[in-house]
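Section 5.1 Outputs to date
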Amino acid sequence: MYASIDEEADRRSVRELRIEAERLTAERAALSERLRDTDARVALLRAHTTELAQGLCVMLKTVRRELKRKDAQRAELEAATCAWPASTRAPARAMPPACTALSDAAAERLGGAGAQHLARASVMGAPCAPRL
């Protein structure tokens, strides 16, 4: 009688252990699948990151090249402006003081291309252009 109770308990334990082993095996397989998915995502992110970094390097080189080109154009324009004969330039004292102050204020407000336009107008002798 005691032997059959012990045998029954052993059989239950073996069944429970088999069920637990199957559950753990299935959980391990699911975790392995998730790990493979994660590894694939990491590889994809690395590839995208590398691609983005290369794109940024190309853009940076392009911007640097464009800045150098713009600097060269500006230097060329400045050299050409300074090389014009003095007779083509309007003397600053020929403009009324109010006109000069107005054009200087406009050049400050405009900045960039607007200021360059007013500066060129001044060199060419346009009335009410800023002093150079």
